[in-house]
Amino acid sequence: MSKKIKLNLPITGKVLALTEVNDYLFNKKIMGEGFAINPKENFVYSPVDGEVILVYEAKHALAIKTDEGLQILIHVGIDSVKLEGRGFASYVKVGDKVKAGDKILFFDREFVELKASIVTPVVITNSELIDSFDINFSSSKAGDIVAEATIK
Prior knowledge:
This protein is mostly beta strands. It has helices at residues 24-27, 109-115; strands at residues 3-8, 13-16, 33-39, 43-45, 50-55, 61-65, 71-75, 88-90, 97-98, 103-107, 120-124, 130-135, 145-151. The model has no long low-confidence stretch (mean pLDDT 96).
């Protein structure tokens, strides 16, 4: 029996197709199925209930694993790793349990935008677990349901 997982929009902003991201690993979906956001605010909220399984040292990206096993990577900006954590603050660490809507990350949008792209991909890195992935491109506010993944 398949199960549906709803993903909330983690940052207020415009939802984009991954094909619009200026990075080969994301726009060719090599990293996984998902969407991107052109952020309008500085805070990132958890899109799902789950456990934090990865927080990059540069604080620009983190991953959350749902109880169903989906691994969701939120990567704030393109080339933002070169900022070496400047302009970022994480509110979570590996092993923390989070609920959809919990504040998990801060980034100084204006500072990051001066040095890198702020377009933020959100991808399911183990997309082989899903049958379908539907995106609501009209979502724009953090907490809106932006996507639904159907697990095999």
